[in-house]
Hints:
The complex is a heterodimer of chains A (about 180) and B (about 130).
Chain A: H1 5-18, E1 23-31, E2 34-41, H2 48-54, H3 73-84, E3 87-93, E4 97-105, H4 117-126, E5 132-139, E6 144-149, H5 150-157, H6 163-176
Parallel strand pairs in A: 1-5
Antiparallel strand pairs in A: 1-2, 2-4, 3-4, 5-6
Chain B: H1 6-23, E1 31-35, H2 38-42, H3 45-58, E2 65-69, E3 81-84, E4 91-93, H4 98-110
Parallel strand pairs in B: 1-2
Antiparallel strand pairs in B: 1-3, 3-4
Amino acid sequence: MHYELCDFLMDIFQNAVESGAGQIELRLDQEEDCLDCCVADNGKGMAEEVIRQAMNPFYSDGQKHPGRSLGLGLPFLVQLLDSTGGEFSLDSTPGVGTTVRFRFNLANIDTPPMGDLVFTMVQMMSFPGDHEFVLHRSNSTRGVAYRVSRRELHEALGGMDDPEALGLAEAFFKSQEEIDG
Amino acid sequence: MAKLNLEALRKLREENKQALEIRDTENKTIQIIIGMGTSGIAAGAKQTLKAFTDLLRERNLTQVSLRQAGSIGLDHAEPVVEVRMPGMPDIIYGKVDPKVAEQIIEQHIIGKELLNEHVFDRPARDIVQD
Lengths: 181, 130
């Protein structure tokens, strides 16, 4: 089971990457006691039957690992949201893409800690692939709002697969979040 | 702290690049690949990646390639990390928390010695793509 909200985010983000999407958008809008997330991709999408299976913790399509049971990403997330007064919705059309919206209720005592959001964003930006990924982030309580494009960030850093680039990206996100350090 | 924009990032990267090319060409061939599937994330692979990022920078090994991969298929041993470098066999290490990450840098990458108790041989058979 995941320990931090960022772990759930990373998990759902990877679904979008693995859907074969060329374009992924992530919105992270935070207020006093909620974090609204929306992950939208233009990947292969899912038919209704496949969505039902994706939500079932006892099902895995066996594509990635024949004979092994995996595929717990979405069920873990839904279980958490159900038990903490969060919200969840998923829209998907085969051949068009998938949009997953969820809201973490930060006021609920059982909602896990946020985790290291800055480094999670660095991780998402550096995740391998040739997709474009645009992050829209806002935090109303801190007056933070910005947008980052993976393509622009990679271009500025000349790639993102070495510790120095990851470190600079981390400094960049920290400054956007107005975190000192 | 003033907000960094992409232009400032580009400048910082350029400055560092010039300094690096003089000092650090041989590390370019070292690759560290971190399994980041659901089980990896749940086992703390994010902290492992962050530890590698921070520790390699502390030691000026900034040319090492650090990449994330999906599940390597050794879920019982997560976080799982593969290390490839010249003069050493390709090794998969299991149960790599930040402390073990530091040992890998010290012992495997710098010292060219295996960490025997963390070696997990090779990826699961259904993951290997020849």
